[in-house]
Every structure is written in C-alpha cells, then in structure tokens.
Amino acid sequence: MRFEAVPAHMPPASDLLAAMVAEMALLYGPIDVPGMPSATPADFAPPRGTFLVGFDDDGVPVCGGGVKGLDGEAAEIKRMFVVPSARGRGVARVLLAALEDAARGLGYGVVRLDTGPRQPHAQRMYEAAGYRAIGNFNANPVASFWGEKRLDRAGR
C-alpha cells in the first residue's frame, strides 16, 4: 500500500470523501450539514492538516482519510473510508497508522477520533490500536465513541 497526500477537493480524494459521506448518510442521515463537526477540504489542507489516499499495488485508490488540526497539540482523524472491495484485508488498520504518522509529522502529539453506534467494528479497531475513551470533544450528535491516543516520537 502506498499513501499519498492529495488535496481533499481533488480526485481521487474527493471521490473517496463523497463515497464515505454517502455511506454514512445511509447509517446516520446526512453528515455534511450544519450542526455536524467540520470536515471540509480546508480542514484537511496544510499547514494544519492533510488528506491521505492509499493506493493498492496496481495504483488503484482503495482508501482515504484526513487529519484536521484541533489546536497546537491535538489533531482529529476524520472521514476514514475503505472502498468495499478492499474491506476485510486490514486496510483500515494500515490507513489508521498512516494517518497517525501524518499527524505526528505535522507536529501533533495527540490524535482524537469518533465513530457511531452502527460501526462497532470501527470502535473495536480504534480500541485495539490504543485509543482510550474520552468525552464528546467535537459535539458530534451521531457519535457514540470518542477516542484519544497519545503519539510517541518513535511511531508506535
């Protein structure tokens, strides 16, 4: 898997984001509306953020996710998405690690994320990756788990 930073408003990042938003709408209703936490292309832009696209060995984009700066110390991992044909192969875990590395590279020492009640598999993955439950840091009305992980300098 090869990861590349791609502006979130440009394909294939924008295509992955659109697919993620459409899939979440089936689970929770629209997530890109007022009252939901911000996840705009500007949120994923340098110098405080990034959007990564993961390409398989054939150069096909199979996953994506963003890092959004919250403050000088913490960033939020948002809009993680793996295309259906690539699911069940550990791609999401690899994507999560790449996003953590990207956050570390941007100078963040803490990453936070959330997930909803209809995605228990995501919560299990986050907890297995070392995320501990915290309070509702982003006022997400459809989330049921908010997690935080302290990043060390060595990438573990």
Question: What would your notes on this structure say?
Answer:
By secondary structure, the chain is of the alpha+beta class. 26% of the residues lie in helices and 27% in strands.
| Secondary-structure class | alpha+beta
Q: What is the residue-mean pLDDT, rounded to a whole number?
A: 96
Helix content: 25-40%
Order of helices and strands: EHEEEHEHEE
Which of globular, elongated, flat, extended, rod-shaped describes the shape?
Answer: globular
Terminal residue distance: 19 Å
Strand order in the sheet with the most strands: 1-2-3-4-5-7-6
Largest sheet: 7 strands, mixed
Number of strands: 7
Summed up, the helix count is 3
Unreliable residue runs: none
Q: What gyration radius follows from the Cα positions, in whole Å?
A: 14 Å
Task: Work out the strand percent.
Answer: 25-35%
Task: Give me some keywords for this one.
globular
Topology (elements, then pairings):
Blueprint: E1 2-5, H1 13-28, E2 50-55, E3 61-69, E4 74-82, H2 91-105, E5 110-115, H3 120-128, E6 132-133, E7 145-150
Parallel strand pairs: 4-5
Antiparallel strand pairs: 1-2, 2-3, 3-4, 5-7, 6-7
Task: Offer a quick outline of the entry.
With 156 residues, this protein is α+β, with helices and mostly antiparallel strands.
